[in-house]
Amino acid sequence: MFTGIVQGIATVEKVTAAPGLSTLVIRLPDNKAAGITIGASVAINGTCLTVTRQDNNDLYFDAMQETLQCTTLGDLQAGHEINFERAARIGDEIGGHLLSGHIHTTATIAEIVKTENNVTLWFEVPAAWTKYIFTKGYIAINGASLTIGEVEGNRFNVHLIPETLRATTFGTASEGQRVNIEIDSQTQTIVDTLARLGYDQPPTAR
Description:
The strands form two sheets. The protein has a seven-stranded antiparallel sheet. It has a six-stranded antiparallel barrel with strand order 1-2-5-4-3-6. It starts with 7 loop residues before the first strand and ends in a 10-residue tail after the last helix. The chain has two domains: 8-86, Elongation Factor Tu (Ef-tu), domain 3 (Beta Barrel); 105-196, Elongation Factor Tu (Ef-tu), domain 3 (Beta Barrel), CATH 2.40.30. It has three helices and 13 strands. By secondary structure, the protein is mainly beta. The chain has helices spanning 65-70, 162-167, 185-196; strands at residues 8-18, 21-27, 41-44, 47-55, 58-64, 81-86, 105-114, 119-124, 138-141, 144-147, 151-152, 155-160, 178-183. Strand 7 and strand 8 (119-124) form a beta hairpin.
């Protein structure tokens, strides 16, 4: 499990493609790889991957074809920066909200609005996922736990303070960029349960 509190920005050192998977070499900042062992889970832009090899600050991960197709990891190239979070441990403070590291869909940054003290990012998501997106609800974008601002059709926004921009890759985000989306699990459970009970249907005329 993860908390959605990004622990830093790492750099893609190398991507090696092979039949059915790609191997990603990710360089973590100094001292951030301490204690990581083979088999450990690390969220890379919100996607839970398993460490297969470690060389000092360089971590190796294998991403299967299904993962590459369902996330933005297939877009990564050497030199790209990513958000990372090591798996939560019992007793860790949950500063965001609980995440599984399993990406539901991707979204596109549709608009970036910059003001004096914060930045608002607007995202477009596939219509099928909008039923889980509510104003003031939780969502994880590239592994960062964020609160949804406004929702308009298949678009929604988040408001980012300077610290979030500094600590994540959102500070260098650009319009048209794809991002990974993990829907809040509790929201998804409630919405799906109500749907099975028929409460998502309009009332019938009498």
